[in-house]
Amino acid sequence: MSNNVHEIIKPKEDLNYSSEKKPIHSDSSVEAKPLPKVTIDGKTYEFKPGDTIMQVAERYKVHEEIPRFCYHPAMPIAGTCRMCTVEVEKAPKLMTSCSTPAADGMIVHTKSEKVLKSRTGVMDFLLTNHPLDCPVCDKAGECELQDYNFEYGPSHSNFKEEKRVYEDATTKKLSDQVTLNMNRCVHCERCVRFTDDVTKTNDLVMVNRGWHKELDVADERGLFNDYQGCLTDFCPVGALTWNDFRFKKRSWFLDKKASVCDRCSKGCNIEVHSDRDVVYRYIPVYNELVNGHWMCDEGRSSYNDLMDPQRIISPLLNHNNSMTSTSLETVIGEVKKVLKTAASIQVVVGTDATREEAALLKEKSTLAFGKPVTINFYNGHIQTSQEDKKLDHMLRMTDKTPNTRGVEETGLAPLPNGELSSEVAIIFRNGRAGIPKMNPHQKVILWGVWNIEEVKNLPTNNIIAVIPGLATIEKEGSFKNTDGVVQKFHPAIQHRGGAVTVHHVVGLMTNNN
Amino acid sequence: MGTINVSKKYTAKERAYLPAILIGMKITMKRFIEGFFFRKHFTILYPEKKRDYSDRFRGAHFISVDENKTENCTACFLCETVCPAECIHIVADEREEETNIYGVKKEKKPLSFDIDLLRCCFCGFCEEACPKDAIKLSTNYEMATYSRDEAIVDLDQLKRPMNGRHEKKDN
After folding, report:
1. Which residue of A150, A226, A408, A455 shows the fewest CB atoms closer than 10 Å?
2. Minimal-distance CA residue of chain B relative to A169
3. What is the mean pLDDT of residues A82-110?
4. Confidence class of residue A18 from pLDDT cuts 50, 70 and 90?
5. What is the pLDDT of residues A124-155, one digit of tens each?
6. Confidence band (pLDDT; 50, 70, 90) for A3?
7. What is the pLDDT of residue B126?
């Protein structure tokens, strides 16, 4: 295996990288000089010219965090929320650390009395119109407004008037995926800048001014970009919520484990949020090599396929033309009998298998199935990884399987014409790769992640058995994504059904007793 | 390990045992006279007659409802979070937009709300945590059931109309 394997054990730190992306001083003469220094809270740090105070502080982890609402490392700096103000010596007023470039010899205090008083004031103003509905708000528990109010907020509010209520926008469906509650909004405009500068779809705007400032969709199409879930991730309050997760679970009950999304060949890094091994959502995790901060909606809702009650998680055997649930040993025994009498055997590996699984199948197939077999891979969306194309300027790819390059690397050839030819075919796929074409009398053994509907709609009636397999987030392995980045992942949840690893099935098949 | 002899020698009065019996009989006769002639009772005829407990008594739970018999609970999970016995199990859902007359105030509802009374330790934390004053502990202490399954009460069994801070008695 190559030596640049990126192991996904815990989420990577969300380090700021915007200054590296857009260097203000690009000429090399700056690099030759000694780096300038800035003093933050009594300690001196070197920084790259162009960094703002917040970026220097974040790079060196001066504190846990300088509080911020409008600042996001992957978006242009706005400086509107005034939460990140710091005291700079010799400056007459407090400066916003997100937008003030650090200068040589600057002395900054991030936790002085003046700064804390300012933050309390900002929190007081933000909370004047924020409804007290944390108990029903889905953001509660991971809300930046809640956290910062706990840390910096005033003990009581000075606001005695009626709170502002947006009558039409309390529960407004911006699209099928996102719901807006405008009352909770703190007008940081991260969402507007995201659609302007990241997705470049410009589908969100702020209308009206001042007290009446309101988030709205730009035209009658509503919210239409393919990265709407990201809006709900970085919204610092519960104004934008993800409908799929809305009201399902409170955030503090969730176990968070890192994994890799298997919905397309990009392999976005994700955090699987589950409770008692039931997945409630995926959220993207920062990885500069792969996905940056983002993830598409298709991948975000792909956990529904695994949590689907229609997914087959028990070994099935064809008994008098009906599929019957039975033990794995019985199924393997029957499969062995069928394979012994078969004239020719063919194994089709879906490109959603991990590199380890593909290598194991290639190596052990002949041994496991008792006679020489032809083994190919099948993608279903494209032929080979050369045809893989970007669907937009961000992350989405045409190849909807995660490991086409990794499977190709093991030396397997694509299935000719995407059609099964042997008497008995073993189809191994994990729910993402397509199903090969077959004639109505083709004998097939299905292996991996299958759905009842998929099995019902197969063109053949000769299904011998279904052997359930583990899905990506339930197993260990590695994927090679479309850019050649190898990502190793560990199980994020434990499988509670009857699915077993490929290793186990191959072991049972090779065992002659 | 050695043994320690803790037995003691009885005094002459204790050995005679008659004085102790007389003291006991004195108490028995006193209670008999009080009860038989002066009608002073220390017990009650329980199922027919019930003892009044303090308003602070923490008995079986109920969930308060509003004037439309809709539960005040918004399925915020705070009681489930705070519960030390982990006896509350809630499944939340969104109220149907067409039938929701409350708007954003009650857009979230409990689809199911189960309390396992056998696990519950009646600490009252759920009542304290509830932001909507929905879950309350009543003064009802009669929770005996014929099976364990019956001790798990659901939303329909929990919903009661309120009378001030207390459950309405006449329902």
Report:
1. A150
2. B104
3. 89
4. very low
5. 999 998 998 888 889 988 999 999 999 998 98
6. low
7. 93
Residue A13 pLDDT more than 60?
A: no
Cβ distance of B75 and A247 shorter than 8 Å? yes
Closest chain B CA to residue A182 = B104
- Name the A residues in 233-252 with CB < 8 Å from any B CB: 246-248, 250, 252
Q: How many residues does chain B have?
A: 171
Q: What is the DSSP letter of A101?
A: B
User: Is A216's pLDDT higher than 60?
Assistant: yes
pLDDT (tens digit per residue) in B18-60: 999 999 999 999 999 998 899 888 888 888 988 888 888 888 8
Give the span between the Cα atoms of A60 and B139, in whole angstroms.
58
- Nearest CB among B76, B97, B107 relative to A135 is that of B76
**What is the ipTM for the molecules in this complex?**
0.78
Residue that is written with structure tokens 């059904």 in the block: A497
Look at residues A504, A37, A17 and name the one whose alpha carbon lies nearest to residue A291: A17
∠ CA A243-A245-A247 to the nearest 5 degrees? 90
Of B78, B104, B107, the CB nearest to A135: B78
Is the CB of B132 less than 8 angstroms away from the CB of A135? yes
Which domains does chain A possess?
5-111 (3.10.20.740), 316-510 (3.40.50)
Smallest Cα distance from B108 to chain A, Å:
7
> From CA A62, how far away is CA A430, in angstroms rounded?
45
CA–CA separation, B59 and A391 (whole Å): 61
Query: Is residue A135 within 8 Å of B74, Cβ to Cβ?
Result: yes
pTM of the full structure: 0.83
Domains of chain B: 61-167 (3.30.70.3270)
pLDDT value of position A31: 52
What b-and-e string marks burial along B72-110, b requiring 16 or more CB atoms within 10 Å of the CB?
bbbbbbbbbbebeeebbebebebbeeeebeeebebbbbb
Nearest to B94 among A135, A247, A253 (CB): A247
Q: Which of A181, A247, A253 sits opposite B93 (nearest CB)?
A: A247
Chain B nearest-CA distance from A171, in A, is: 7
3-state secondary structure of A210: helix
Q: How far apart are CA A371 and CA A507, in angstroms?
A: 16
